[in-house]
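dumping this here so i dont lose it again. seq + smiles for adenosine-5'-triphosphate
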Amino acid sequence: MDQDVGVLARGVTRSFGRFQALRGMDLTVPYGEVTALVGANGAGKTTLMLVLATLLAPDPGTAEVKVAGYDLRTHSALARASLGWMPDTFGVYDRLTAVEYLEFFAAAYRVPRADAATRIAELLERVHLVEFARQPVHVLSRGQKQRLGLARALVHRPKVLLLDEPASGLDPRSRVELRDLLRGLAAEGCAVLVSSHILNELEEIADRVVLVDQGRTAGEHDLATLLASASGIWRIRALDEDALGVALDRRSVPHRIASGTPGVDAGPLTEQEAASLLTDLVGDGVRIVSYAPVGGVLESVYLAMTEDRR
Ligand SMILES: Nc1ncnc2c1ncn2[C@@H]1O[C@H](COP(=O)(O)OP(=O)(O)OP(=O)(O)O)[C@@H](O)[C@H]1O
C-alpha cells in the first residue's frame, strides 16, 4: 500500500538545537493529485519539504517517512532519484546558458545524453523559455529563473514533485501557466506537493490541502469536501439594493451592508445554500450584478487556524 502514494510521512520530527521545528508532521501525497501545504510563517513547511527532498535528516523519533515508496532513512539516494525539488530560493550558475544549466542537472540525474537534448528542448518549451535557451542564466528575470528552476526539477521525469512557494515571483500569466502545468503533471500521474501563501490560487490548483500549524499537521482535507462544507459570507450586488434587502429579509437570510464597498454581505451560507439563494433571488426578480464569497474558503480556514496568534 505504501508504494501507492508519492509521499507518506507519519510523526515527522526535526529540531534545530532545542527548538522543535517539526513536532509530529503527518502527510500523504497521492499520485495523480496536487496536494497543497498551507500554514503561517514559521509553521514548518520549508523544514518538512527539506526533509522530504532528502536535504535535511529527520530526527530519530520520526515514525515513518517515505518518498516514492523509499524510506528516506535507509534509501535516500533512491528517493532522491525519484523526486523533483524546487526550493523557494535557489542559486543558478550565472555563467551557464539555460540549456547548459539543464544539461548539467540532466547529467547529475544520469539522464542518458541521447534523451537529454530532447527532454531539455521539450522542457524549455513547456516553461516558455525557448528564446532564452542560449542566453546566460544571469540575464533571466526572477520569474524566468523560477521557471528555469521548475524545468530543472522536471529534467529526470520525477514521480514526485516538491515545490516550495513556486508562484512567489511569477506574474499573473506565468501563475496561470504554472497552475496548468501542475495540473497536467498530476494528470500524467505525478504526485505534486506545493506550498504557497497565495491561497485563492491554491484553491484552483489543489485536490487536497494539508494545514500545518506550529510544526504539526492541523488537518488533511479533500479540497472539494472542504469547499462544499465551508460556511462563508457572500457579497451580493444588485441593481436595486433595497429590493435585495427585502428579498433577503423575506427569506430570513442574515445580511448587512458591506463596509467600504458597494453591496450586501449575506450569510454564513454553505456553497449549496448560496447557490439556492441565488436561484431564489433571481426568481424574486432581484437583478443581481455580482455574487461571490468574501475571501476564499482556504483563506477563511487559514485565518481561523492562525487567529489566536495575532
Ligand atoms: N536551520 C535552522 N536553524 C534554526 N531554526 C530554524 C532553522 N530552519 C528553520 N528554523 C525554524 O523552524 C521554524 C520553521 O521554519 P520553516 O522555514 O520550516 O517555516 P515555513 O513554514 O516554511 O515558513 P515561511 O512560510 O515563512 O517560509 C521557524 O521557527 C524557523 O525559525
